[in-house]
Amino acid sequence: MNDSSNIAYVSISEWNKKVMRFIWISTGLVIFIEVLLFVFFQPVPECSKREYWEIFVLRPSILMVLEAACMELTFRCLGKILGEQVITVVFLMMQFVLLGTVVAVHSSVPYMCMVLTYPVIFANVYREKYFRYVAFVMAILVYAAINYGIIPSTEFKPDNSKEVYLVIFVGFIMVAFSFSKVLTSVVVNFEKENQKIHQEKEEILEISQRDSMTGLYNHKIFYDRLNDQLQKCDKDYPLSLIIIDIDNFKRINDTFGHATGDNVILKIVSLIQNNIDETDIAARYGGEEFGLILVGKGEMEAYNLAERIRREVEQVTVEGVTGKITISLGMTEIQPQDKNSILLFKEVDAALYEAKQTGKNKTVCRGWKKGSNNDYTYRHFSSREEKPMS
Question: Which helix (H) or strand (E) holds 156?
Answer without folding.
Answer: none
